[in-house]
Amino acid sequence: MQQWFSLSESAMEEAFFDTPLLREFAQLDAHGRLPDESTILRFRHRLERHKLADQLLATVNDLLEQRGLLLRAGTAVDATLIAAPRSTKNKAKERDPEMHSSQKGKQWYFGMKAHIGVDADSGLVHTVRGTSGNVADVTEGNSLLHGAETDVYGDAGYQGSHKRADAKEGVTWHVALRPGKRKALDKENNPIDALTDLLEKVLAGIRAKVEHPFRVLKRQVGYEKVRYRGLKKNTLQLKTLFALSNLWMLRHTLMATQG
What we know:
about 260 residues; alpha/beta; 2 domains; 10 helices; 6 strands; globular
């Protein structure tokens, strides 16, 4: 609930006192002792210390796989930039040293990157990696695979993934043409170029599945800027949020199966 509603520890404490529905969901007795700000903070630190966010995402995905909602044949990969505060008006008088600048188009961004691998059929997230903003997408491409897929789909930023030292055997990469090369295709006079462009459109439809979790993250949850300092804490939060996004994307199906 804290992650879904983007609440701080103190705001979560107040929400328990003010909102009966949240207490009911957490199975808390309104007349008993409700968790205070310190209790919620210690609980979050315990999740971080024991890496339970990883287990949370894995448990959600195991549940979805058992119900036939998560397949393993193909994976689509992509990354998105998450902004971090640029201000140095803090105790250390400096920006977060683990965050870095990255250029996208003609604009520069400061923060981290969320790299994800999603099921190419359903668009559900199965792997999450967090890096500084200046890490190239291709660097993390092979780390986003779960190992059981046979086909991987990525945009032009993943060119050369199959040649890297960490490339997995038995996996076929379907990477988009760079915009300049696709623009140069002679679709009207060259049949091969026309078929190549048609194939690019089909593959683009598959790759689009990876954009759905990002939309949930930034629009439904409103997560557009990191909350903590350091990559570790923010990456663990991302894993929790993507576990929630998987449930949100299948909310109608899950509710229908429960009657």
